[in-house]
Specification:
The complex is a heterodimer of chains A (394) and B (596).
Chain A lengths: L19 H9 L3 H11 L11 H10 L6 E6 L8 H8 L1 H15 L3 E6 L7 H17 L5 E6 L9 H8 L23 E5 H13 L1 H5 L2 E2 L2 E2 L1 E8 L5 E6 L4 H8 L4 E6 L5 E4 L6 E3 L8 E3 L4 E6 L4 H15 L5 H19 L6 H15 L3 H16 L1 H5 L1
Helix pairs in contact in A: 1-5, 2-3, 5-6, 5-8, 11-12, 11-14, 12-13, 12-14, 13-14
Chain B lengths: L3 E6 L2 E6 L4 H7 L23 E4 L6 E2 L10 E3 L3 H16 L15 H8 L18 E2 L5 E4 L8 H9 L6 E3 L6 E3 L16 H5 L5 E3 L3 H9 L4 E6 L7 H4 L9 H11 L3 E4 H25 L9 E2 L4 H10 L13 H17 L6 E7 L3 H6 L14 E4 H10 L21 H4 L6 H15 L19 E7 L14 E8 L1 H13 L6 E5 L17 H16 L10 H11 L5 H7 L10
Parallel strand pairs in B: 1-5, 11-12, 11-14, 13-18, 14-15, 17-18
Antiparallel strand pairs in B: 1-2, 3-4, 3-5, 6-7, 7-10, 8-9, 16-17
Classes of the chains: A alpha/beta (394), B alpha/beta (596).
């Protein structure tokens, strides 16, 4: 990754293109294999944060033999500092609906769901209107596909794909054991493709313009553009579509307030990058690049020198201790120990070395927790404690 | 058999069937992996994470219970990373656990304590979380004590209540740090659909769910010289008790148990098997009466199928879940309550003891029996019929406390009058046993011939299948029963309330064609009861079952109606099955209940 890479804006997702009917009609007449190959050659990776290759995901589900399959759009956008999916669904819902339907065509599903975050109930009316219009057109072109909204109830954990299925099945939202994976055993035990809202919106771009247009953006291993939810100590908070692979230093130049001391990349479950590492940090998926690459769901929180990193971490840990589903030991108890632990150190009830014990505990959580929630607590915990140790103690 | 694959565990190659979990594969290879949330009776949860192992090439550890083996997998169960992680997890569990072990009923029998000891968790300095919680102990149930401060959220109880019993009295609620096992609206266990079956207790790894014990009360009664303490022992206790006292599962310890009870100081040691035989007389007669009423008299008030009523967990279940179908239940009390009613009437009179001075104790494989004994209607003798109910586990505790070297005891015999029994009484302890015992007697009463099965073994009603069916065609009956000629008696047996539910739903739907159904709340019947030794799992249940049937085969008499003490009690006291005295003492009514 070149160090003199410049911040590059892109404009695909929110581009006002009133052509979804055409995109839908053209693409559902293409053979599924061709569409899968298009996706694979675009190198689109999941935009929820985990970065699983989207083409591969669709391919595996398409190869499953089953009469019933499902497409689910994961709109349970709950990561602190992320608000891009809300904007996509309110501004360009038809792109997402079209992408869901094309995915249904590719894998052989007749039903799609949008799992909408409980707090986004206000989107429901407009979204349902769009779905009605969309389904009307589907009937018109004799394409058998329907989309339903499933309202979440406000649990962060239900954004985890298998917890989301459990929630949709009317059960307690707890992540399942993997394997089996959703592509073979998802919602109702059927093969299911579950994609983030933004991922689906990107597939729209790819199916409309071809994979090359998308592939040409970004850098090796991190192709395409991505929406960033910029918040915190910045003069211009908002949502920006940028090419992947940018250096964090460039990002801070553009969005910082000249006093940025750290950036939290990827929300509470992401990493905190201190100022001294801005130059060597790139935003993109891990690959054989120079420096550190940080994948992200798009949340970029900037902190200036007025912020106490102890308070930031305390806030995150409160969030995790509250939002852990509570089933697995490392996450349920681990989060509480980390939270109470940093407070105890701050109050002097535990000595500074206790932080080292907690760093080890965070590592155990990363190795042993059942799902991404517990596994990623260590990301923010370790990066904050290691970089701002003195703020934890004094 | 599935495809065989090869994996290595700690460097050694193991050949296993594809899809086997790492835990199972390790087990086959002689490698022990610790577990907490795993139980052979239940679905895999994979939530305690104590069974994590390393798979070469993977950064994260994998839960051995929930990870299927793949060809060529290289599993390491004892690396530094694994050991440190497990230690952390045990420490975390201890930090949210009220580890006041010496004050705990499960001290010595706690799986978390055992792991903490194995991993030598000392100098544990994680912050203790229990003081931050507002825990109260639920002691309202006569059977079950629920202490959330000792709960490690493994959800074994939740899965037990849902998967084995279909009751769902316990569930996980709240999330994160507040996650806990609760009842409906956090009501007391006594106020919800809980059937008191105690399966949750039997599956709980810690002391979070334990039976309400009456050990001290019984010791006090024994030491009280003015009291005459009578004890009865249920059929299944004799095939389970040994496990608590040094024997392998499946050992029959009837004689030793009787000897131990005498040493403990009980004034009379008698057998619930006797009233099991009596139940057959009463219930068998009731069935034949019902058949006549329904088939000949066409009386619409007589309900078929008739369901057995020996299992108090099942009784509470039907009262909650199918309150409109209570007429299907046999009006017979359970053997325990028949015994209780008779001991303070028949026995007291015969032995010339003031019934007020009699303390009636029962040893049961069951916690629901504690609830049953406390039912307000169970006072037909004029006193509380059964004063204290102890589980198999509680009896073992008393035997240990008394310093009895159980293994060295010489066999002793039950006391007379209500201590004689037949093989038919013994098999009450296994699923299908009541049915088999009833058929042995009823068929013979009706036809004058033995049941047409070799050596009286009615194999179709035996076994661990959740719902079993059997039909017996009645041919050439005695003249009195001529209306039954050619009737095919259709029977079903369900054990585990989740299976009971299926059968009941078929009755509700009108698709059932049964005449007589045996229901047992616990998987495997009483031998798998909630009050039996921990652990109880499919293999142990199978061994106890084999022991029960071996006990049956070893009995000189194997048909209830041949029991001489049964003949005597009808001659001297009850006069006839379903007679006036029987109605007063041996039969009961049921209470419709709501689900919430």
């Amino acid at each position: 990754m070149s160090t003199n890479y410049q911040l590059k804006r892109a404009d695909f997702i929110f581009k006002d293109e009133n052509d979804w009917e055409e995109v839908l009609k053209n693409n559902i007449n293409r053979p599924p294999n061709e569409l899968i190959n298009e996706l694979i050659s675009s190198e689109l990776k999941g935009r929820g944060g985990a970065g699983f290759p989207t083409g591969l995901k669709w391919k595996i589900s398409a190869e499953e033999v089953n009469d019933v399959k499902y497409v689910i759009c994961n709109a349970d956008e709950g990561e602190p500092g992320t608000f891009k999916d809300r904007e996509i669904l309110s501004k360009v819902p038809f792109k997402v609906l079209t992408a869901i339907a094309i995915c249904g065509h590719v894998i052989g599903a007749k039903i799609g769901f949008i799992y909408l975050r409980g707090e986004y109930f206000f989107l429901q009316t407009e979204l349902n209107k769009a779905i009605n219009e969309f389904e009307y057109y589907c009937r018109e072109i004799k394409f058998d596909f329907s989309i339903k909204i499933f309202m979440g109830s406000g649990a962060y954990i239900c954004g985890e794909e298998t917890a989301l299925f459990e929630s949709m099945e009317g059960k307690r939202g707890e992540p399942r054991n993997k394997p089996p994976f959703p592509s073979a055993f998802g919602y109702m035990g059927k093969p299911t493709v579950i994609n983030n809202v933004e991922t689906l919106a990107h597939t729209y771009t790819i199916f409309k313009y071809g994979s090359k247009r998308f592939y040409d953006l970004g850098v090796q291993y991190s192709r395409g553009s991505k929406l960033f939810s910029v918040s915190g100590d910045t003069p211009k908070p908002g949502i920006y579509e940028l090419e992947l692979g940018m250096s964090l230093a460039d990002f801070v130049d553009e969005f910082g307030d000249d006093d940025t001391k750290a950036v939290q990349v990827g929300g509470a479950s992401g990493f905190l990058v201190p100022r001294k590492r801005f130059n060597e940090t790139n935003i993109g998926f891990q690959g054989k690049l120079v420096g550190i690459s940080l994948p992200t769901g798009g949340s970029m929180m900037l902190f200036n020198s007025s912020r106490s990193m102890f308070n930031v971490l305390d806030n995150y840990l409160n969030f995790f201790a509250e939002e852990s589903c509570g089933q697995c030991t490392p996450c349920r108890v681990g989060c509480q120990q980390l939270l109470r632990g940093i407070k105890a150190v701050k109050r002097g009830e535990k000595n500074a070395q206790y932080l080292d014990k907690m760093l080890k505990l965070a590592e155990t959580m990363q190795f042993t927790a059942k799902c991404g929630l517990g596994q990623s607590v260590a990301n923010s915990f370790s990066s904050i404690v290691e970089n701002f140790r003195e703020e934890m103690i004094y | 058999m599935g495809k065989k694959i090869k994996i290595t565990i700690n460097g050694e190659t193991v050949e296993i069937v594809k899809g086997t979990s790492i835990l199972e594969a390790a087990n086959q290879a002689g490698v022990i992996i610790p577990t907490l949330c795993y139980h052979k009776d239940l679905c895999v949860a994979g939530n305690c994470r104590v069974c994590v192992v390393e798979i070469a090439g993977q950064k994260r550890l994998a839960p051995a219970c929930a990870t299927p083996c793949d060809e060529g997998m290289d599993v390491l169960t004892n690396t530094l990373k694994v050991r440190n992680s497990r230690k952390h997890i045990i420490e975390l569990l201890l930090s949210e656990h009220n580890a006041d072990c010496t004050n705990c009923y499960k001290n010595g029998g706690c799986e978390l304590q055992k792991l903490a000891s194995e991993y030598k968790i000392m100098n544990q300095d994680f912050i203790h979380l229990v003081p931050f919680r507002n825990y109260t102990i639920d002691m309202f149930s006569p059977s079950i004590i629920k202490d959330d401060s000792k709960c490690i959220r493994c959800q074994r109880c939740v899965r037990t209540c849902a998967e084995l019993q279909g009751v769902n009295a316990l569930t996980m609620s709240y999330k994160g740090e507040h996650a806990k096992i609760t009842t409906f609206f956090e009501k007391a266990m006594n106020d919800v659909v809980c059937t008191n079956c105690g399966q949750c207790i039997n599956h709980c790894p810690t002391g979070a769910l334990v039976e309400k014990n009456y050990i001290e009360e019984v010791w006090n009664a024994i030491s009280d010289k003015t009291k005459y303490v009578v004890v009865q022992t249920a059929p299944a206790v004799r095939v389970g008790l040994g496990e608590e006292l040094g024997f392998e599962p499946g050992e029959r310890v009837t004689g030793k148990m009787v000897a131990a009870l005498k040493r403990l100081g009980f004034d009379a040691v008698m057998d619930t098997d006797f009233t099991a035989d009596l139940t057959i007389m009463e219930e068998g007669t009731e069935l034949l009466t019902r058949l006549k009423g329904a088939l000949v008299d066409k009386n619409p008030d007589i309900k078929l199928p008739m369901a057995t009523s020996c299992s108090p967990g099942w009784i509470k279940f039907i009262e909650h879940m199918y309150p409109s179908l209570l007429d299907h239940l046999s009006s017979c009390k359970s053997p325990q309550q028949m015994f209780g009613a008779l001991v303070k009437t028949y026995y007291a009179k015969a032995r010339n003891i003031d019934p007020e001075k009699i303390v009636s104790v029962s040893i049961m494989p069951c916690t629901a029996k504690k609830f049953e004994a406390a039912r307000p209607e169970m006072h037909d003798s004029g006193y509380r019929d059964v004063d204290y109910v102890l589980t198999t586990r509680e009896l073992a505790i008393m035997i240990k406390q008394a310093g009895i070297d159980f293994m060295k005891l010489k066999d002793a015999h039950y006391d007379r009058l209500m201590g004689e029994s037949t093989g038919a009484g013994v098999i009450f302890g296994a699923t299908g046993g009541v049915m088999e015992a009833a058929l042995r007697t009823a068929y013979e009463l009706v036809t004058g011939r033995e049941v047409p099965f070799e050596d009286l073994k009615i194999l179709p009603v035996r076994g661990m299948e959740g719902i079993k069916e059997a039909s017996i065609k009645i041919e050439n009956p005695l003249e009195k029963w001529s209306f039954l000629d050619g009737v095919e008696l259709n029977c079903a047996i369900a054990h585990g309330l989740v299976n009971a539910k299926k059968v009941m739903d078929s009755i509700v739907a009108g698709t059932s064609h049964y005449h007589f159904i045996e229901f047992m709340a616990c998987p495997g019947g009483c031998l798998g009861g909630g009050g039996q030794p921990i652990p109880t799992n499919p293999e142990i249940r199978a061994k106890r079952t084999a022991a029960i049937y071996a006990e049956d085969e070893g009995m000189p008499m194997r048909k209830s109606h041949l029991n001489p003490e049964i003949t005597k009690i009808y001659k001297d006291f009850l006069i006839a099955p379903l007679g006036e005295k029987s109605h007063k003492l041996l039969h009961t009514k049921y209470t419709p209940r709501k689900r919430y």
